[in-house]
Amino acid sequence: MNPEISLAVIGGTGLYKLAALAAVETLEGETIYGKPSGPLRIGTIAGHRVAFLARHGEGHSLPPHKINYRANLQRLKDIGVRRVLAINAVGGIGDRFGPRVVACPDQIIDYTWGRISTLGEEPGSEVLHVDFGDPYTASLRRSILDAAARVGTDVVDGGCYGATQGPRLETRAEIARMRRDGCDLVGMTGMPEAGLARELGLDYACLALIANWAAGCGDAAEITLEEVLANVEVASASLPRLIAAMLG
Ligand code: HPA
After folding, report:
1. pTM of the full predicted structure?
2. What is the number of the ligand 1 atom nearest to the C-alpha of 223?
């Protein structure tokens, strides 16, 4: 077995552990930016070492704006991770992005505010202006999409992820504006995570699990947590095979 960690998976709402991970060890630890959301669970999938981190904490105790995104990514980097697969529960805006669909977005619009969004704001640190024209790593997106094709899982190739502040869901007017802006998906945790990964030089891509129609996009009068969790569970069913195929 290769002792190097081939991939890290950051799980979002509804994904607090990776069922496919065998022989799991737990790694606690801190970083120069403080504590990550929880321990790293390191195990094997298809003979490769994989690290898993629950973004909101394993008991979902951290709201999106309180997550220490810098510590999460720095912790992964500190243990030698180079590739990060971010799993995010999202709402669907565009017609191709209905509940239970899985998508691999290729663009981001950031509507979040007040989050620490760079490594370069510590006293004495260098100001960073990383290129972010293509916010997700092309080779990692390719590897996800190729793996999905090999195992026969439908993953929509592309889409624009709009990152909102939360923790409340959006108004219909906010979603209508996001649609006009070109967003296909809406979630609360896509940023600053992707930008920080770029600053750290990590390969980073997102698999978005569509949990509900965003406000005003479907027929539902209201979005419920039950609906979100049930759809995330269905959408995540293909993840073990997909991740194994990415590694194989
Ligand atoms: N909006 C924002 N974040 C989300 C949603 C949504 O509708 N569904 C799941 N995460």
Report:
1. 0.96
2. 7
Q: State the pLDDT at residue 17.
A: 86
- Please tell me if the CB atom of residue 211 comes closer than 6 angstroms to any atom of ligand 1: yes
Choose one of 161, 169, 189 to mutate for the ligand 1 pocket test, by most ligand atoms within 8 angstroms of C-beta. 169
Q: In this structure, are residues 186 and 214 in contact, taking their beta carbons and an 8 Å threshold?
A: yes
CA angle 232, 103, 246 (to 5 degrees): 95
Sign of CA dihedral 45, 47, 48, 52: positive
Which band of pLDDT confidence, cut at 50, 70 and 90, is reported for residue 162?
very high
**CATH assignment, 7-247:** 3.40.50.1580
Q: What residue spans of 30-156 are helical by DSSP H?
A: 69-78, 138-151
- Determine the distance from the C-alpha atom of residue 74 to the mean position of all C-alpha atoms in its chain, rounded to a whole number: 15
Share the mean pLDDT of the chain: 95
* 53 touches ligand 1 (CB under 6 Å): no
Instruction: Indicate if ligand 1 lies below 6 Å from the C-beta of 89.
Output: yes
User: Going by CA atoms, what residue is nearest to atom 9 of ligand 1?
Assistant: 90
Find the 240 Cα to ligand 1 centroid distance in Å: 23
CB 207 within 8 A of CB 15: no
Given pLDDT bands bounded at 50, 70 and 90, which one contains residue 2?
very low
